[in-house]
Amino acid sequence: MQKISDLIRKLTSEQNTSAKKPNTLDDRELLCRNIRSALAGVIADINTTKGKKLVVWLNCGQRIVFDQYNNESYRDIILKDLLEHGYKFQQMTFIKGEPEADNHNVIKICDNDLEYLEVSDCDASQQPSVAKKAKIVIIEGLYAVNPLQKEYELSSEEITSGRIPAYNIGRGEIAKKDGAFRENHIIFDVSPDSPLREEYRCISRNHAHIGFDSKKGFFFQVDEGGAYPGKTLLINGGRTINCDCADTVFPLKNGAKIIVKDGMDYKAMLIFEQIKD
Description:
Layout lengths: L3 H16 L5 H18 L9 E7 L7 H4 L2 H13 L6 E6 L10 E5 L2 E8 L11 E8 L10 E5 H5 L6 E5 L2 E4 L2 E4 L2 E3 L19 E6 L3 E6 L9 E5 L2 E4 L7 E2 L5 E6 L2 E11 L2
Parallel strand pairs: 1-2, 7-10
Antiparallel strand pairs: 1-4, 3-4, 5-6, 5-17, 7-11, 8-9, 11-12, 12-15, 13-14, 13-16, 16-17
């Protein structure tokens, strides 16, 4: 069985390789500034961008490679940057070439890499559908803590119907704290007499949970027991996140990896996989 540490090194290597592409931080910041500057010149009220789609026509000369920017990860970076400055676009896309002559919504910019901008209503048929079913596949690490099952299915209906508040992750089927009981659904457990008993301290009885939102889909959130620096990592959409704050919600992308650590040792990896209806 492949060790989690080997998988982490492979993922890190892939991230470093992608970082060597000509999609540099300076390029990104420059394009973000240019887009914000162009929007500031044509949009009087930034609140009108809520729920809208931003279309950006790029000048694909020597300075810019279209495929470098036209990908989901890069569009997410632009949308996040715009949101931090008050623009609330729901979607965006890059286009190269010229807009159609009868498209009267297009605004000509001709500023550095930007040729035209368009702000329009989102096409509901093009909005990404939210996966309502998924599964968690668990890979054990070296001297690992063992789950009761290697695979757990997740259904949004279980949460939206109120049968469970979320899919709780933790040690033991039933956890008790301050007189209240919590049922865990993705369970790590061991007999009190097991020689691995000490290894299980890295898994809290109230470690984390996976919830569901009708717009965001499945999301991950650490609970009080898992919110310690270096204890729970999330690799999500190419980003490695130290989950040390119980107030932060992370919408899960397909293939996201939740990693439980004990010091420098990786104990378990939970892989999130969407199931298409």
